[in-house]
């Protein structure tokens, strides 16, 4: 491919930095590895009709009632009051979620998704669907922003690692003039031999491990366990055909 | 040292993230490796009486006139109109700067410095004075924020690498529950064998190399060439005794 015509590939490490990027002329990949975007692709992979991401518990309850849908979301590591399910990908096997609508409220990921609403396209990414994400991004030939949901705007390890993993896979197809992308890729190469052990250094690991969620973390760091592409259409995430 | 009583060590990768940190209860290290903070410690090491950091070219001219001082600063890689000197550490040998006052305007570093004005203490850090910085931080026993000046709020490689180098040297003395700090340290360990080669991947390298500044970059990536501690007192950076 001609150097000059390659689209840009950039990494935005926190929603608080998104204004520095040209969202309107880019595909934005929403990354919330622990655990929103891992759970979204898992639910769709297991046959959910769609996933509706909402910002608040109130919206979740209200839309869930209107659509007779499954409502899910956590606050401070517990299922939020008024909702019935949590953020774990293991809560959404085919026998439970097949054919159903999932209304999901998460703080970090949903916030970023709404901030990126003017993007050319919004998709969600996580290790369980990394191959589908990379194939899609290469096929589109558009500018890409890998948007880390972070933790209350703080840069986090798991989203940065996933962004780095994507950069390492697709960079030949893009112009990568972004220090965050190069840093994320370097970090990923340092960690990839054993992502789970590396993640033990991270702040979020300890938050989740306290709740006994080590199996969730392992699943969320494993490639292609639910390898489909969630794509946003009219405010709803559906499985791209 | 008792685990519980250790002060915090955190890395803020961009001024746009500084509001997430407890600046008021921390020492803030201003990091602008290419080239403001490298030049500041070099000028002080070579005998400058003080360095006055200012935000605009106008202030620089005005204060320079009042104090009969050396005025310096660049915009877009050139000495700014109305000023006489640039950002290169090589412009400030003892025979030129000894006993003089340097009024310096830089965009990224000065902005961060003003944002951090409520900190317990502000110092500046760069590879040429890394040992002085680390010794000071260990000696103070206070919370520390390593504040990267970045590039127009974009995370950059060189400031992140320096933050990582400091983390790797002093982390035993601190509580490091900050993914940015862990990521920066990991990045530094990947790069430290040959920082200059690693920096060739970074966006700022290409901006400066276009201006023929590779020797500046090499100097700015070399440890302890001007190993003193610039500390902010009443808006002026002086050499800590």
UniProtKB/TrEMBL annotation, chains A, B:
Pfam families: 2-ph_phosp (PF04029)
MF (Gene Ontology): 2-phosphosulfolactate phosphatase activity; magnesium ion binding; sulfopyruvate decarboxylase activity
Gene3D superfamilies linked: ComB-like
UniProt xrefs under InterPro entries: ComB-like, ComB-like_sf
E.C. designation(s): 3.1.3.71
Cofactor: Mg(2+)
Keywords, sorted A to Z: Hydrolase, Magnesium
Reaction equation(s) it catalyzes: (2R)-O-phospho-3-sulfolactate + H2O = (2R)-3-sulfolactate + phosphate
Domain of life: Bacteria
UniProt keyword Magnesium present: yes
Record-stated family: Belongs to the ComB family.
Protein name: Probable 2-phosphosulfolactate phosphatase
Taxonomic source organism: Chitinophaga niabensis
Gene of this entry: comB
């Amino acid at each position: 491919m001609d150097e000059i015509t390659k689209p840009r590939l950039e990494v935005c490490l926190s929603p608080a930095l998104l204004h520095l990027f040209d969202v309107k002329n880019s595909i934005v990949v929403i990354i919330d590895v622990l655990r929103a975007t891992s759970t979204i692709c898992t639910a769709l992979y297991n046959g959910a009709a769609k996933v509706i991401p909402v910002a608040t518990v109130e919206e979740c309850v209200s839309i869930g009632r209107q659509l007779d849908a499954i409502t899910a979301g956590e606050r401070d590591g517990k299922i939020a009051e008024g909702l019935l399910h949590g953020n774990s990908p293991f809560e959404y096997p085919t026998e439970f979620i097949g054919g159903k609508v999932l209304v999901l409220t998460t703080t970090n990921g949903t916030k970023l998704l709404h901030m990126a609403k003017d993007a050319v396209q919004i998709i969600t990414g996580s290790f369980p669907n990394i191959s589908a994400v990379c194939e899609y991004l290469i096929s589109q030939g558009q500018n890409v922003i890998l948007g880390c949901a972070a933790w209350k705007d703080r840069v986090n390890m798991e989203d940065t690692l996933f962004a780095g993993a994507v950069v390492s896979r697709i960079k030949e197809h893009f112009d990568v003039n972004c220090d965050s992308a190069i840093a994320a890729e370097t970090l990923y190469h340092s960690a990839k031999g054993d992502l789970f052990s590396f993640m033990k250094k991270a702040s979020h690991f300890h938050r989740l491990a306290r709740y006994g969620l080590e199996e969730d973390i392992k699943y969320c760091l494993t490639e292609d366990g639910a390898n489909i592409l969630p794509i946003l259409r009219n405010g709803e995430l559906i499985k791209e055909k």
